[in-house]
């Protein structure tokens, strides 16, 4: 069973930066799609960045140009560099994984989730 553990959340002022990490373990042989989701209070969990095992990347419009997803295949560590943070980026951030070669924006696609890390953007 895949286990994912996020870290790196915290509080930052608008315009600031944070880097989230997601340490993965328990992977079996095969290709995986990895993603970052976030969920603000009272809102649906939304996908914001996805990366396939071959390195294909996509971003939600809300974070495009500000956030960067990356993956270290050797260590199965997923990262999310977040720049130019806005108050509307405040949410619980989750990493997710599914054993398949193509990615989806739907949360229901993903079989493995981390516990989440809180990001708060406020002055």
Topology, pairings included?
Elements lengths: L2 E5 L2 E3 L5 E8 L7 E7 L6 E6 L5 E3 L7 E6 L4 E6 L8 E8 L13 E2 L3 E5 L2
Structure write-up:
- This protein is mainly β.
- 0% of the residues lie in helices and 48% in strands.
- It has strands at 3-7, 10-12, 18-25, 33-39, 46-51, 57-59, 67-72, 77-82, 91-98, 112-113, 117-121.
- Strands 2, 4, 5, 6, 9, 10 and 11 form a seven-stranded mixed sheet that branches.
- A hairpin with a 6-residue loop joins strand 4 and strand 5 (46-51).
- The protein is globular.
Order of helices and strands: EEEEEEEEEEE
The N- and C-terminal alpha carbons lie at a distance of: 40 Å
How helical, in percent, are the residues? under 10%
Tally of alpha and pi helices? 0
How many whole angstroms does the radius of gyration measure? 13 Å
Structural class: mainly beta
Quick overview:
The chain is mainly beta and 123 residues long.
What characteristics describe this protein?
11 strands; 123 residues; mainly beta; 4-stranded antiparallel β-sheet; 7-stranded mixed β-sheet; globular; 48% strand; single chain
């Amino acid at each position: 069973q895949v286990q994912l553990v996020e870290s790196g959340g915290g509080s930052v002022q608008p315009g600031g930066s944070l880097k989230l990490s997601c340490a993965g373990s328990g992977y079996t042989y095969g290709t995986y799609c990895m993603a970052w989701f976030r969920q603000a209070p009272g809102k649906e969990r939304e996908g914001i960045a996805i990366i396939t095992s071959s390195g294909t990347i996509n971003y939600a419009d809300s974070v495009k140009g500000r956030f960067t997803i990356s993956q270290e295949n050797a260590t199965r560590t997923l990262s999310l560099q977040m720049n130019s943070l806005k108050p509307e980026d405040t949410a619980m951030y989750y990493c997710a994984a599914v054993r398949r070669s193509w990615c989806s924006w739907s949360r229901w696609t993903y079989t493995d989730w981390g516990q989440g890390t809180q990001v708060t953007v406020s002055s």
